[in-house]
Structures are given as structure tokens and as C-alpha cells.
Amino acid sequence: MCLQYEQDEALCRRKNSYTQREREMEMMEDVVIVGAGIAGLATAVALKRVGVRALVLIRSEGLRATGSALTLFPNAWLALDALGVSHKLTPIYAPSSMGYVTNVSAGDVQQVLVRVANNGGDGHGIRTIHRKALLEALAEELPVDSIQFSSKLAVIGNEEQGGASIVVIHLEDGTTIKSKVLIGCDGVNSVVARWLGLAEPVHSGRSAVRGLAVFPQGHGFKQEVHRFVDVGKRAGFVPLNDRELYWFLTYNGDNMTGDPEHIQKQVLEKHAEKFPSSYLDVVRHADLSTLTWALLKFRQPWGIIFGKLSKGNVTVAGDAMHPMTPDLGQGGGASLEDAVVLGRHIGNSVINNGGLIVPGDMAKAIDDYVKERRWRPAFLVTGSYLAGWVQLGGDKWWMKFLRDGIFYQYLFGRISGLVHKDCGKLPAMSFGDMDHSSKKD
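That's the FAD-binding domain-containing protein sequence above. Prediction below.
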């Protein structure tokens, strides 16, 4: 799978090697997606499934796989089912059903049964996977020329054309692209979200270190989640396969600096020095090329509920809409849900218009998408922040009771059920719809 995508990526780079004269040409597209992370690629796949070609713009020279791994709950797997991608990943990654939470200060260990959401019906359970594998699985579904690398967004505008509003996108290299739809999937610091007028994400007061640990001879752990909590700190690891584990540390503060080797040293000697040897050994085996440190930001939920998430035929999805802390493990899942819901509304509009993208109707389809999605990510952002607040709380007795006596004992194992949602399916396209989908109106 990786080799094939590398070949495709090289071909795509060659196709994107425009001459200066070609770069200054004006392009016309039906849909432009800014950003090729989980939300951007998943949205492009969803649109392809409903017969709509999207051009995905990515500012880097290749597909970026920053972020070592992520956990996908049943709601995310239902979205991947709808996108037709889940079958590529489930044979590679085993589900986790058991977890252990160690109170570092007290030495107590709680066993937690991770429960799959009721009536999920997906059979995939909860799996932790390489982020790169997910991105490649999505990218492989797209025509190679639909991803345009080295394309940095500079200015967004619009103009009237034939009585309809057309988005005009200017890239830093001088390229101008006109599009009937613009979807911003450009992350926490989204240019498209800023253009819509959404408030900037705020710092949660927490930071996170994440990476992969590699044991060439095998790590010997069962497919179980191990978590460790202390005052103001939360850490853990989970196997990805027999030789690799995903590990993390979340803590209150923002004072970690330096290169990956220095960050690893700070984790071992400053933040997790009292943690069990099993966790410290995992951190010592870190693949430094995968190690990242980041401030954890989120968009305030009322900014999602009352904010302007769309303007005509422009909208946002993924972290551009709802950046959240990782405490419920729903950042990736929510992005996949966005893709399916947005694909469904655009697909229904295309079907109703005989396979054509009609800019005026696109504005209604996007507005319907926003109405359907607005409350769901607001709930997840709120739940994620509160879950982190409880787990990283202070040393007062009532905070410890909330964390150990309520959250870990009663809620942690039920998180899958609390956040579960079936985002639905994509509309079935007839062969006639597919034949007409590339026509211009």
C-alpha cells in the first residue's frame, strides 16, 4: 500500500511541476478542498463516492503524516465503512477491549473494560492505528491528479458569475482558482475559518507529547490500553502491532522545548520520573522521528454553536471547524463524520440536479450540513475538555474522587457509548449520475 502511494505521489508531483506561465493560468474547479489531513482526504473520498471530483490543495511537497497514531471509536469506523475504506485497516490493527489505569501517587491499579457502543453494529470495536496508514488508505481512493502539492492559500474572494457566487482562490505562487464550492480542512490555524469570521481557537492550558515506541524483538504487551495518572499529568500507551506501541503524555503547562531527543529527556527526567518502569521503558524506545510536542487548543463550544460555519458555498470541516483536546479520542472520528455528512448533502444536491453542481443549490446543501453538524462537535469539544479537566485535576480530595471514584470507575469504560453516533451513509449514485457529474452547468 505504501509503495503504491509513493509512486502515485511522485507522479502527482511531476504533474504539479508547472512552468511559470502555466502557474499563472486561471483554473476552474467544481470543488476545492484546502488541506490534505484526515478531514480533507476523507471529504474528497466522500465526494468521489457521490460522483463529484474535488481538487485537494496541500501546502507541503508531499502527503504529510505528522502525528504518530490515533484511536478510532465505533463512530469513526462507521464513517470509514460509509467511505469504503475500513476494510483496508481492520485486518492490520486489533481492537482493544481491556484497559488499566494506574494512580502513580497511590500505586493503585484499576482494571477497566472498554465497552463497544450499544447497537454499533460495526464489529470493528476500538482500534489504535498509524495516522499515516489512515491518510494513505484515503489518498489511494483518489485520482492521482486530484491532490495538488506545494499550493499555499493566500487570498480568498468571490465574484458573481451567471447570477451565482463563485469562490476565487489565490495561491502564493500566482495561481488563481475559481470554484463553485470551497471547503476548508486546513487545521487548527485555518485560513478558511478565519475568512468566515470564526474566533481563533484558545489554549486549553495543557500540552501533549506523542510518539511511537519500537521494540525490534517485540514488546510483549497484550492488546490492552495502559494509562497512568498523577496530579496534573496523564500518560499511557497501547500496542499497534507486535513491535510498535503508541504512547503519549498530557500535562498542565506549556514549557517543553527543544529537539525530539531533548523532549524525550524532559519526559523521562521531569514529567514522568515517578511513573512505573513499564511506561519509562516505552518512552526510552521512542522513535524520535515520530515524537511531537504541541499545545492543546480548542474552539470554544459556543463559537461552534453560534459561529458562522459557512458563508454561501464556503464551509469548514475537521479541526478547521472544531479543534478539540484529545481526552475523548474523537478528533479524527469527528473529522470522518464531517466528511460523510458533507458528502451526503452535496451528493443529494447533485442527484436532484441531474448530476450537476449548481452553485445556488450548493449554498443550501452546505447550510444543511452545518445545521446537522453544529451541535455534535460542540458536545465533543465540551466533553473532551471536561474529561481532561477531571483527569489532570489538582490534588484536592474531591478532584481525586471525581477522577478515580467516578470517571475511571464508571465513565471511562463507557466513553464509546457516550460518544457513539452513526453519521449515516452516502447516497447511492446511479451510472447516469456518475456520467453527468463532471459536466459544467
